[in-house]
Request: fold
Amino acid sequence: MSRVAQRYAAALADVALERKESQLTREGLSSFLQGWQESADLRNVLLSPGVSYEVKHALLDKIGAAMQLAPTVLNFIHVVLRHRRLEALPEIRNEFEDELRRRQGVALAEVASAAEMTKQEKSELLGALEKLTGKHIEANYRVDASLIGGAVVRIGSTIYDGSVRERLNRLQTRLEAAA
Amino acid sequence: MIRATSIMVALASRGWGMGLFAGRKIASGAAAVFLIAAPIFAAEEGSPSPADSTAGWVFRWVNFAIVAGLIIYLIRKVGSPQLKERAKEIGAEIQKAGEFRNAAERERDEAGKRLSNVAKEIEQLRETAGHDEAAELERLNVLIQADVERIKHAANLEIEAAERTARLELKATAAKMAVARAEGMLHQQMTREKQTGLLSTFVKQLFGWAR
Reply:
């Protein structure tokens, strides 16, 4: 399924970047998927083989109008519906995000900190990470109290650890290795 | 009678009519019988015996001498070779017995020597056995000592390994406890300012890596 999702994501990224609607497409797709995940009835109707394509198509048009989805997004969801790949839509969205970041030279950073970071701290951290990677950084933040202090950043498969937990782990290793 | 005896003696001495040594012996024997028997026949005649006269006595002595000589002759003639032969046999037997005796003595001496050698050999065997026993004991001692050393070495290695493991476990436990205690203290002492300081340090570190 991942390869299929990549193909759909690449096609959507082509259109979105061509029309310079990458942000609009991203937001529209996220909105639709939020409703998709929240509404079991919507999923049941759109995934049910007992409901005809025409009915589903008409329903999607109504939802698009109600959510004010960009035509690019709505057309893309229609294509996915016609190819009966709607169940892969969440995965396609993730692949689309990655594809966009790749094409725009953006790196996604997962940042964990012992306490909530201030805007200034986030800004300083992003600046440092952008300088380190040479890419624009999009960060997802979360709080992890087990870190005790400091923060940990993961970009792809690389981890930058500035937490107290890591220092304690190193200290324990040194103590165990000490003669 | 006397004449007859003389004739018989003459015949015996010449071996007349017989021609053989056996005939002579018979003739000599017959003459001896006649000579012995002559006085008896003379006494039976009852007349005053001329033998009682001096001539008779002389004749008797002569007769006795003849008979005695005859007997001696016969003894020497007939018995001597047998005696010589017997003496030779006895001498030979004596010589043989002497040889036997010498041989027995030699054997006795050899046996004595052997006996003395046996004692010596026994002593040598005993000595050799003693040496062998000592050597075997020495060899066993060496083997036992080697085994003891090997077991001691293995035991030492095991003890060292156990000690090393225990030391490592102890270190790990001590480190874990120390870190747990430090973690507790850090949790208590962590403040917003300190968190900011840590983040600031981390950011500087990232900038440092970026250069």
